[in-house]
Amino acid sequence: MSERHVLVLPDRDSAEEVAEELGERFGTGETPQLVRDALAGEDDAEDAQWLVVVEDPEARLDPAALDAFAAEYEGWLEAP
User: Fold this and answer.
1) C-beta of residue 78 within 8 angstroms of C-beta of residue 35
2) What is the pTM of this model?
3) Which of 15, 20, 54, 70 is the most exposed place for a label (fewest CB within 10 A)?
4) In the prediction, which pLDDT does 39 show?
5) How far is 39 from 56, CA to CA, in rounded Å?
């Protein structure tokens, strides 16, 4: 069963670093998708979180490990 994991990061730089390191650390094959998530009612880029969307077609990634990894960058794994 395929899964999708969404890591929430505080800024674009962190999101880009996480996206790069995911493959090295977790052996993900595809490059994750980066998405800017503006907070409700805010247009300022400073008030945006960045999402790293990781497709996990074989459901082999450990959510707890992904959450701990995101925490290293002041982020978290979004609960499904």
Assistant:
1) no
2) 0.86
3) 20
4) 62
5) 26
